[in-house]
Specification:
heterodimer, A: about 140 residues, mainly beta, globular, B: about 100 residues, alpha+beta, two-stranded antiparallel ribbon, two-stranded antiparallel sheet, about 30% helix
Chain lengths: ~140, ~100
């Protein structure tokens, strides 16, 4: 699957009745997904270290081009300044396509640095992490 | 107003009428938007592996693409109060003082 086939969606409605909008102003995106580990080594492991996965940690990083009229840039910037959460779904394809997979979570923006290179366009490098919420992250599969 | 109507109004409040959004099929049906019920073939018992299939309904949680303007029009219809016409026969009987 091509990276450009992947989609980022923002829910502008409530959690229970979502209205997903496609966020097109996205350059490269990295969705870190890793398990923290607990040392579970014992004498019975033959002298090898053994570990078990514990907490699953998500982190989302992507770039946005600074477009004054873009409602998504405005929404992300407003959420960053106000420290409010955004309901985001990172999918490997269109949400309306059966078989598309992804992760949905409520994130807060932790970093929103601006890049203003002389020979480039103005960009934002957005970094989000799941926040405390009544609805924890979920894996999504469109069936 | 139904909660689903209210929630969908909230969702499209700041969106342009031409913007495409994705709403779950069950929520669109609840506000009167016609959505076809798709079906798919699934294995009856995956453990047997004998290729015995049956046709089932696709889950209603599948998001469907719709324009904000279309959804707003459906919500306007769904949120209209229903007119109730009282007939004389159904009028409550009041005892004379």
């Amino acid at each position: 699957m091509l990276g450009l086939s992947a989609k980022l969606y923002r829910n502008t409605g409530t959690y229970g009745t979502p209205t997903w909008t496609l966020v097109n102003n996205v350059t490269d995106l990295t969705g870190n997904d890793s398990m923290e580990e607990a040392d579970a080594s014992t004498r019975g492991d033959g002298g090898f270290a053994a570990s078990e996965p514990t907490l699953r940690a998500l982190e989302l990083s992507f770039g946005m081009i600074n477009k004054p009229a873009d409602t998504d840039v405005a929404a992300f910037l407003a959420a960053y300044i106000a420290r409010t959460s955004l309901d985001i779904a990172v999918m490997d394809g269109l949400m309306a396509t059966v078989g598309s997979k992804g992760v949905r979570a409520r994130y807060k923006i932790h970093q929103f640095p601006r890049a203003q290179e002389l020979r480039g366009v103005q960009t934002f490098d957005v970094m989000l992490k799941p926040c405390v919420d009544a609805n924890p992250p979920v894996d999504m599969t469109i069936s | 107003m139904l909660p689903v109507v209210r929630d969908l109004y909230v969702g499209i409040e700041k969106l342009k009428p031409t913007q495409e959004i994705f709403v779950e099929a069950r929520h669109l049906r609840a506000v009167g938007v016609s959505v076809s019920q798709e079906k798919k073939w699934v294995e009856k018992d995956p453990t047997t592996g004998e290729g015995d299939f049956e046709m089932v309904d696709v889950p209603d949680t599948r998001p469907i693409a719709i324009e904000v303007g279309q959804l707003r029009a459906a919500l306007d219809v769904a949120s209209k109060p229903v007119e109730v016409t009282e007939s004389k026969a159904a009028a409550p009987v009041v005892d004379a003082p």
